[in-house]
Amino acid sequence: MASDWKDALGGLIGKTPEEVARTQRQPAGQKASSGKEPPAFFSRDDYVDLADQCMQRLGRPSKNKWNRENEIKRNYGELTSSQMRNLFALVTRLYNRVTIGGEITPADIGSIKVRMVYDAGRKADVQSFLQESGLLRGLDFIGTDKGRFLRYARYMEALVAYHYYYTDKKD
């Protein structure tokens, strides 16, 4: 996680809306002004496999609990199914608006990021999930691009699905 809340918000604090919009309107695949590469799920066609691998790495194997395919169930600590659904709901609201022709604004992305940072600050397992998955960093590369946002939403949906598939606790 970033060293402080200003870093976690990607330097949005103290910038004018025009400055924020300029930094978030980069062509797909271009590096952000910070020089960081976009997360792999933006450019790879196997983002579903990336989600599967991520959720397997994050969960700790549960003893003597198996799923139908004889794979061991996993414990995600405080990263519960409810927490995953709450995070996904942030993205789903914007996804629904975008799919009927709505626009993405920097404020939309900023509000999702602020909520994710808040949840990460409350629970270390949520912080680990957002770091490992690249979801928090990925918000910096969406800008107002609908294609990148739709890829982000689909990747997040895959993460939620694999979490539910592997988890040893259904809540």
UniProtKB/TrEMBL annotation:
Taxonomic superkingdom: Bacteria
From the UniProt entry, list the residue stretches annotated as the region Disordered: 1-41
Protein's gene: csm2
| RNA-binding keyword on record | yes
The scientific name of the source species is: Anaeromassilibacillus senegalensis
Task: Tell me which positions the record assigns to the signal sequence.
Answer: none
User: What Pfam families has UniProt attached to this entry?
Assistant: Csm2_III-A
Q: Is RNA-binding found in the keyword set?
A: yes
Q: Where is the composition biased (Polar residues)?
A: 23-33
Name the record gives this protein: CRISPR system Cms protein Csm2
**What does the UniProt function comment say about this protein?**
This subunit may be involved in monitoring complementarity of crRNA and target RNA.
- Family the entry assigns: Belongs to the CRISPR-associated Csm2 family.
Give UniProt keywords alphabetically: Antiviral defense, RNA-binding
**InterPro entries noted in UniProt:** CRISPR-assoc_prot_Csm2_III-A
